[in-house]
Structures are given as C-alpha cells and as structure tokens.
Amino acid sequence: MNNEQPINTDSPKDWNRETQVSWNTNASVWDAKMGDDGNDFHRLLVRLATEKLLEVKEGDRILDIGCGNGIFSRRLASLGAKVVGIDFSEQLIACAVERTQVQDAIAYHVIDATDETALLSLGENSFDAAISAMALMDMAEIAPLFRALTKLLKPQGCFVFSVMHPCFNNPHISMVAEETESDGEIKTDYSIKVSKYLQPTITYGLALRNQPKPHLYFHRPIHLLLGEAFRVGFVLNGLEEPAFPANYPNDYLLVWGSNFSEIPPVLVVRLKLLA
Hints:
The protein is α/β, with parallel strands linked by helices and 275 residues long. It contains seven helices and twelve strands. The chain has one domain (5-167, 197-273): Vaccinia Virus protein VP39 (Rossmann fold, 3-Layer(aba) Sandwich).
C-alpha cells in the first residue's frame, strides 16, 4: 500500500491518531516477533551502535522514547540504568510491562511523544540521557519532542536516536540485483536504487510482513531531521551508520544482509545541548 503524500502542517494530529491506532492494532504481532531481545536487525545494528554512542554508566537515568515492548528499556536496565519507557500505544506498553521482570528498574508510561506538555510531566532536568530506537520515522511531529528534551535532560545530557537511514532505507528505494558475465563467470552486483530523497513524504508501509494494518512512515531527509534538533540548541557530536557484516547470511527476512554490507540501513545519531 503506497498512498504517498508530501509532509505538510495541515493535519499532524490526524496522522498521529492514525499512527496510534495502527500500532495498537499491530502490537501483539510486533511483540511476538521482537520477543524479549529483538531480532538481528535490532541487536546487530540498532543496539550496538546506540550503546556505543550512549556510553551507559551505572545509575544513569535514561528516557526510552517510543519504547515499544520494552526491548531497549530492559537492555539498559541490565546495564545498570534506571529507565523510564514511554510509548503512545497502550497495547505495546502492556506488552512491555508483561515482559519486564525487574520492575523497580523500569517505569513505563503511556505518553505521546508528540505532546510536549505530557513529556514535560516526566520532570524537567530529570534524565542523564534519552534514546529513541527506530521510532522518529513513525512520529507525525518531532519538533515537540526536541523542544521537550532541552528541558528534560540534565546539563551535559545526550539524546541518541536511530532511524531507517533516510538516504538508503527510505520508502522510495528499491533493492537491485544485477547479473553480469565477465571472463566466463557470472557475477551478481547488489545496489540500492533511490528514486526520492529530498522531499519529505508520508507513505504507508509494513514493518513486518504479517502485521494486520499498514502504518505511516514519515520520511525526512537528514537536513530536516537534524534541523529540528539544531533549531532548539542541540549539536551533533556522534554518528554511526551500521550495516550487516560481509559474512552475514543473505536469507534474512527483511532482505538486508551481507549482499548490502556496504550500504547502511540505519542511521544512529548522538546529540548534545550547547553549554
């Protein structure tokens, strides 16, 4: 399903409500697929790069934005952090609570990350760091979140987020395999064909092939994505572009594997506030 629309400011509340309905509808399927520890995409790409940039320390208080079924919240708690996980999907928060054993290390709340007032209810100057693992591209608005983070984070606090790489893993790419013959041998070259990038768009998509309801993807080119952060005083001071290693199997369900080991499907960014 591909009902593409340009992003504008006319109906973000409507888009947000539709996205919330989609994630509540898909929650049980998503929870079953990701389980307690996530899939290889999460573990090998998102988690490793995020932890590298986050540099978790024992006792850090960390906000997990768009926590889903609590995969990253539980991981951070296992590293000694005190975690607050938020998501606007009541069903996903219910899954997170059910899967979480160490209740005293993690507090879950149903909070909409596009609602600045609700975010600030978590307490200003309360967090050493914040993360958002593969969630910003599911948010109809990101400006309210960046504004709120300038108040929620302690001095020297950081925000680490991951998204589908806007250049190489957006709704307007195609994965290409081309066979050529050279010196009597057949060679297959793999590449990404990008048809659109600069125009921010909204499209319907599937995070999982068996999810019951398509959801909205909010594609933003890098200059717009980071521009919202720069506008409120964040600076970029860390960046990772993880890809699957060259020895990774190529039968991965989401196609990304060693055939595309030179093309990163994920962008991971660390932001800090100007002193």
